[in-house]
C-alpha cells in the first residue's frame, strides 16, 4: 500500500474486526474489501501494512459525526499495549506519562491518518489532533479513536488519569449508549478544535513497567527510522514538518535553505504536491495559534509575539481570516 494512504496500524484494525464493536455485516464487508485488494488479516500484520481509512468510508457510506464518535470510542476500548508496532516496546517501557506522550512524535511511523501538534506550557501540555483522511467524518473517527486510545493506554500504564481531558470539535452524539470508559468531564464536545490537555503534575506520574534502558534504545531506533521515513515522504510533508518545528513566520527562502534547494525549486515541488508555501505556513500558524489559545497560559499578545508577529493587530487580522473569529472571540467560545 502507498505510504501516503491514510491508514491505521494493522493489529489495531484486526482487533476491531475480532471485537464486538462491529456487527457481522460490517465485518463481512471489510473482509470482502480485503479480498478484493488481495489481502487478509494475517498478511496485513506480516507486512505491517496500514489499514486504509477509506475502507471505513466504503463499509459505512452514510457515516456521520455521531456514528464516527461512537465507533471511534468503541474501537479505542479494544486497544492493547502491544498493538502499535514499533511504538509498542517504548510504550510499555516508558517511565512517565511525559515519556508516553513523547512517543506521539513518532506517530507517522505507524499511522498516516493522524498527526499531533504539541504546545508545552507551565500548566501542562496541550496536544492538537488533526486527521488526514480527506473526509471530515473519517477525520472525526480517527481523531476520536486516537484520543480515546491514548487515554486508555495512559490508564493502563500509569493508573488514574482523570485530570486528562479529550476535547473534540463536533457535537455530542444524541443517540447510542454513553461511553463508560470516558466519564463526564473527560470527553468535552463542541470545542473549537480537537486536542488533549495533560496537566503538568500528571506528566510526571510514574508508569508501572518502567525500563529506562529499553526505552532509550527504542527511542534511538525510532529516531533513525523516522529520519529514513522523512526521505520518502512527500516534499510538502517535510516542508510542513519544518514549519511546525521552527519559528512561526518563516520565509520560503529559509525553508528552502534548510532543505538545500532553491526557492524556485521549493515552489515548483510544492506545486507538484498541489499546494503552496503560503498555504502550508498558514496551516501551521493557524494550528499553533489555536493550541496556544485553548491552553490559556499565554495572553493573545504573547501568542502573537511567540509566532513571530511584531504587531498584535496583524496577528488578529490573520487569525480572523483563518477562522472567521478574532483570537479573543475564539478563546471566549472555548471557555463557554
Helix and strand arrangement:
Layout: E1 7-8, H1 10-17, H2 24-36, H3 41-47, E2 51-52, H4 54-59, H5 65-76, H6 88-93, H7 97-102, E3 114-121, E4 124-131, H8 136-158, E5 165-167, E6 187-188, E7 195-199, H9 200-203, H10 212-230, H11 235-245, H12 252-258, H13 263-272, H14 277-295, H15 300-306, H16 312-323, H17 327-335
Parallel strand pairs: 5-6
Antiparallel strand pairs: 1-2, 3-4, 4-7, 5-7
Helix pairs in contact: 5-8, 11-14, 12-13
Q: How would you describe this protein?
A:
By secondary structure, this protein is α+β, with helices and mostly antiparallel strands. It has 2 domains: 7-212, H-NOX domain; 234-335, Arc Repressor Mutant, subunit A (Orthogonal Bundle). It contains 17 helices and 7 strands. The strands form 2 sheets. A 5-stranded mixed β-sheet has the order 3-4-7-5-6. The radius of gyration is 20 Å and the shape is globular. The N and C termini lie far apart (43 Å).
Amino acid at each position: 500500500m502507498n505510504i501516503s494512504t491514510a491508514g491505521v496500524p494493522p493489529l489495531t484494525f484486526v482487533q476491531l474486526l475480532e471485537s464486538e464493536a462491529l456487527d457481522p455485516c460490517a465485518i463481512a464487508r471489510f473482509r470482502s474489501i480485503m479480498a478484493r485488494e488481495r489481502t487478509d488479516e494475517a498478511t496485513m500484520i506480516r507486512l505491517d501494512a496500514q489499514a486504509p481509512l477509506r475502507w471505513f468510508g466504503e463499509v459505512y457510506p452514510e457515516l456521520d459525526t455521531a456514528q464516527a464518535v461512537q465507533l471511534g470510542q468503541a474501537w479505542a476500548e479494544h486497544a492493547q499495549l502491544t498493538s502499535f508496532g514499533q511504538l509498542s516496546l517504548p510504550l510499555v517501557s516508558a517511565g512517565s506519562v511525559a515519556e508516553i506522550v513523547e512517543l506521539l512524535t513518532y506517530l507517522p511511523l505507524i499511522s498516516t491518518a493522524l498527526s499531533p501538534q504539541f504546545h508545552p506550557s507551565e500548566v501542562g501540555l496541550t496536544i492538537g489532533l488533526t486527521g488526514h483522511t480527506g473526509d471530515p467524518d473519517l477525520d472525526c473517527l480517527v481523531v476520536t479513536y486516537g484520543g480515546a486510545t491514548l487515554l486508555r493506554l495512559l490508564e493502563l500504564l500509569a493508573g488514574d488519569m482523570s485530570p486528562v481531558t479529550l476535547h473534540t470539535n463536533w457535537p455530542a452524539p444524541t443517540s447510542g449508549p454513553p461511553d463508560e470508559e470516558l466519564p463526564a468531564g473527560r470527553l468535552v464536545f463542541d470545542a473549537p478544535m480537537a486536542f488533549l490537555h495533560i496537566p503538568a503534575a500528571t506528566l510526571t506520574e510514574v508508569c508501572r513497567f518502567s525500563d529506562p534502558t529499553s526505552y532509550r534504545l527504542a527511542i534511538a531506533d525510532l529516531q533513525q527510522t523516522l529520519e529514513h521515513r522523512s526521505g520518502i515522504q512527500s516534499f510538502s510533508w517535510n516542508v510542513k514538518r519544518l514549519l511546525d518545528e521552527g519559528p512561526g513566520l518563516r520565509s520560503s527562502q529559509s525553508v528552502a535553505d534548510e532543505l538545500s534547494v532553491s526557492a524556485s525549486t521549493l515552489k515548483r515541488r510544492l506545486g507538484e504536491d498541489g499546494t503552496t508555501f503560503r498555504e502550508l505556513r498558514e496551516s501551521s500558524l493557524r494550528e499553533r495559534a489555536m493550541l496556544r489559545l485553548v491552553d490559556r497560559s499565554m495572553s493573545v499578545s504573547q501568542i502573537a509575539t511567540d509566532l513571530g508577529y511584531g504587531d498584535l493587530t496583524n496577528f488578529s487580522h490573520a487569525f480572523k481570516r483563518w477562522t472567521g473569529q478574532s483570537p479573543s472571540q475564539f478563546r471566549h467560545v472555548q471557555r463557554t
